[in-house]
Amino acid sequence: MKWYINVLKNYAVGKGRARRKEYWMFVLFNFIIAFVLGFIEAILGGPGIMGQIYNLAVLVPAICVGVRRMHDTDHSGWFLLIPIYNLILAVREGQRGDNRFGSDPKADIATAA
């Protein structure tokens, strides 16, 4: 859950790199929250407004973490728009060491510990 909250706190930065773990944990928790909201709305018989509001609220953070994930693989954020290739890049390990988008997030965590 800390990865999900971390993305929401830092989405406005737009620079830097996102590790695979940060990206995929955000995707996982985003899916779980959307599923739970949809389930609750289905039980209540609502029109789905809560789910739409939630999806709108996390749209920009989701795009930002996706762009930072592309940066970790040393690709421009525009690669997020290429359908299958962006999934391949999101699954692939990030570039080791510094690249043109910032320092290695794995190395930053290792030096902090």
Walk me through what this model shows:
With 113 residues, the protein is mainly alpha-helical. It is built from six helices and no strands. α1 crosses α2 (20-44) and α2 runs antiparallel to α3 (49-57). The longest helix has 25 residues, at 20-44. The radius of gyration is 16 Å and the shape is elongated. The two termini are 20 Å apart.
How would you summarize the topology of this molecule?
Elements: H1 2-9, H2 20-44, H3 49-57, H4 59-72, H5 83-91, H6 105-112
Q: What is the average per-residue confidence, as pLDDT, rounded to a whole number?
A: 90
Principal-axes shape call = elongated
- Approximately how much beta-strand content do the residues carry? under 5%
Radius of gyration: 16 Å
Main sheet, how many strands, which sense, barrel? none
Query: How does the helix and strand content classify structurally?
Result: mainly alpha
Number of contiguous helices: 6
* Helix-strand topology string: HHHHHH
Question: How many structural domains?
Answer: 1
Distance between the termini: 20 Å
User: What is the strand tally?
Assistant: 0
Low-confidence stretches: none
| Helix content range | 55-70%
Task: Put the structure in a nutshell.
This protein has 113 residues and is mainly α.
Q: What distinguishing features does this structure have?
A:
single chain, about 110 residues, mainly alpha
